[in-house]
Amino acid sequence: MSNYHIKHLEEYWQVYRKSVRNPENFWEEIAEEHFLWRKRWDKVLSWDFSKPEIKWFEGARLNITENCLDRHLAVRADKTAILFEPNDPAKEAEHISYRQLHERVCRFANVLADQGVEKGDRVCIYLPMIPELAVSLLACARLGAVHSVVFAGFSATALATRINDCDCKTVICSDGSYRGKKTIDLKTIVDQALEECPGVETSLVVKRTGGEVTMKEGRDQWLQPLLDAADARREATIVDAEDPLFVLYTSGSTGKPKGMVHTTGGYMVYTAYTFKNAFQYRENDVYWCTADIGWITGHSYIVYGPLANGATTVMFEGVPSYPDYGRFWEIVEKHKVTQFYTAPTAIRALAKENLDYVNQHDLSSLKVLGTVGEPINEEAWHWYNENVGKKNSPIIDTWWQTETGGIMISPIPYSTPTIPTFATLPMPGVQPVLFDENGKEIKGNSVEGRLAIKFPWPSIARTIYGNHERYRETYFSAYPGTYFTGDGALRDAVGYYRITGRVDDVIIVSGHNLGTAPIEDAINEHPAVAESAIVGYPHDIKGNALYGYVTLKETGESRDQDNLRKEINQLITDRIGPIAKLQKIQFTTGLPKTRSGKIMRRILRKIAGKDTSNLGDISTLLNPEVVQNIMDESLA
Ligand code: WT7
Which family does it belong to (predicted)? Predict the structure, then answer.
């Protein structure tokens, strides 16, 4: 257990220095001690960030589900693996033991195999937060099939794009989902999507709401009867450490979503290691991450990281506001949750409500509080610390990305002294560097720049599905020899990192990563729209909200602006999903552009954020006069 569990700051530094001095040795020791490999690796690491090519534990053979399930059966078969808390608080929580989870995964894997799913095939999963979601990821992994989970809040068009991009032949979905008071008809969305997906042969449908659905003959099948008929055992398909485990889409600043490909061995080692250390996980803990498994946070820290450690992981189907704003705290009290991991946007939303919602509940089981997804503002940090943690539970502000697979910069609770808004120190094995705008590395402390990582860690994504060149260009070309994160950061006097936000055209809204280009594309589909530009501006709860500047085609006709706004947001909802809707839409006569025709978002961002004191030199613009117009007409 030597370097697996860090217990104080001095030990952190010892471990960190060791991890940087000899990363291969460091990760090899962890991989050797804590996992089940069917064959040992020939080489710990080979890498070349210029190609880029990264291989961890090359030659090793394993199955991640043997690590997450089978090996626990000897020691904790009856321990709860997944604690499912349904949307309806009147319904019983479901405790799924490791033995039961193992059986459910085996049955599901057998069903998939019967449907012709083989090692390497991509399977799309579009499910709400119900146990079948976790089971289906693991069932794919059992077969060596590659799961591609699409968050069940995405629209039919967004789903279809993702299914087609990685050629899924099989889709797993449900009739519907519960979210608070609402019931959502997911199957209809899937049906619409599949009209655009000629490659899909089979869809397996979980019955959740019992709502009416149309089942397409020869394509759609109810899952439960197939599971009932399936064998409860299934041998795991042994794969190479570098075989893909999953694809997960994230938005880019341009073009279509990027299918980040994560592989098996390194991802397993890194998520397990960081789960144990960042949350200081102990055997009898009850760990709860409130994310959706449709995002990387759920993949790594609801499913794989916790299960690889034999932990009890809570899965919550509902929303923080139902039946009232005390729901999170009620669940913490009821299940005696020890680690609680959520997003700043959720904290800000709950902090607006009456404190009684928190104070009515006994939160004394909590030992560690986590946040992820966007910078946490100071006010939210203090609210979380005082009211939830009672100043007794360290807050870990964990910085990472879909691409990094696991937590990269985070305090180690009870070891690293925390400071509000600082993600603090890199996890062992992570080597951050800062660059200035000219691509020069900024050394020393008390500096600010663009954040890159100069050495591979085991769970870095290996490519973008079907587009390795885009992977190279997006992450490895800005600062050659390093992985560029897209974030800005500062390093303070003692070397703590604070993430200052995206430096590209990605906007984080309520912790969701949104690219401006796909949203602008959706808006521009409107027949009345000539051109548009999206920027983010500060918002109390969402962190950022979207502000759209839209110029209309000159037709001479007058149009009802409120209707247009509705139609534009409807288009965005259809093409991407409601999470990408614009908070404000300003119709303008033009957009400020450089002489080469590039939209000056910097100026638009300042106007949207009501920070117009220093717009910089606008005289070199192609159309400086529009800036004044936009300011005059800007929305209150
Ligand atoms: C972007 C990645 C990692 C899972 C959820 C988001 C921002 C994430 C923090 C944090 C400041 C953060 C960054 C990053 N971000 N965590 N603790 N402090 N910013 O994954 O959708 O891939 O988004 O989220 O800007 O680049 P993602």
Answer: Belongs to the ATP-dependent AMP-binding enzyme family.
